[in-house]
Amino acid sequence: MGKAWNCSWHTEEVFRLTKPSAAVIESQIAAAAHSLVDGPQFLRLPYGVRSERIALEFAHDDSRSLLGQGVAVFDAAKLAFKRWAMFDLGWARVANPQARIEVGQILAVEVRSLDLWTLNLSRITEVIDTPTHFGFIYTTTERHVEQGDERFLLEFDVATGDVWYELEAVSRPRHLLARIGYPITRSFQRRFARDSHARMREETLAGNTILS
Question: Is the pTM value of this prediction over 0.70?
Answer without folding.
Answer: yes
